[in-house]
Amino acid sequence: MAASRSTQTRGAILTVTPNPAIDVSTATQAVTPEHKLRCTDVRRDPGGGGINVARVLTRFGARCTALYPAGPILGRLLRELLDREGVPNIALDIAEETRESFTVLERASGREFRFVLPGPQLEPGEWQACIDFVDRHAAPLDFVVGSGSLPAGVPDDFFARLARAARERGARLVLDTSGPPLAAALEEGIYLVKPNLRELRELTGEALETEDDWTHAAQALVHAGRAELVALSLGHRGALLAAREQCLRAPALPVEIASTVGAGDSFVAAMLWRLASGSPLVEALAWGVAGGTAALLAPGTRLAFEDDTRRLAGQVQVCALPER
Ligand SMILES: Nc1ncnc2c1ncn2[C@@H]1O[C@H](COP(=O)(O)OP(=O)(O)OP(=O)(O)O)[C@@H](O)[C@H]1O
Ligand SMILES: [Mg+2]
Whole-model pTM? Predict the structure, then answer.
């Protein structure tokens, strides 16, 4: 709808993807050993957490730039693919090669096989250049999004450093990562974190079996000052959003799933798009779930489109959970 395109975020969003990828997706009748598997419908998409978030935000009309380290050959391809999609992007040169990921849809079963190839090893000066870029960023920045895994050579406190640099620039950090880099950034204190259940279990070391457990764990992070907002995405069970004053819950929408690739990234982008526009948390959660759902509609790394997301957001039933 025209209204959303003219809704401008107040400032700019920078996404930082330490370990971007060229996402190759294709389809074959059946995945079997030894024989050549003839593939069709090949796509090459720019990929990696923050790159995906920037692609979706750009479609939605946000002012967003993707920052990423780029290897000599595939890094150039990544840049070309982003340029073609009209995603403003900044590639910081690195010596080793950008990684590829490879997704195969098996037509006979509808199953997807996802192969993630190893990424490059970064030198200290190479990852530091990402932090320095934020440190030296002259124009106003509202949000910095850190998303995805860390390549070899990058210290676990990379996103914590990014959070510090963002804060010093008056920007808020949105984070979607896992393991020790997630824990270190939360120690620093950030604006929004979007774990899934597996990532939250790993972070807390708890089994988190019931909805009560999930709510409690998410709110505990908020009350400990680790994050202002905790958006816990729950796959086919939807999502919940914990804030200081409230906890909201939205069930998933029933849709036919073509691919779950990029659901988490589309969730983050759609939620941030509403938050950056000053919308209430209820709406931000509805858009997050809608964005994640919109990403399921097409195979491969298509990610969410705005018209699908807007339509689906109207169907998401958000309710308030009692405070713990
Ligand atoms: N199987 C599903 N059925 C319905 N909705 C889903 C399903 N999977 C994902 N979603 C929607 O997408 C959102 C994000 O998905 P999910 O929780 O799987 O993120 P994630 O684990 O971070 O995914 P990713 O693999 O992209 O990192 C969910 O909150 C939900 O709204
Ligand atoms: Mg995820």
Answer: 0.94
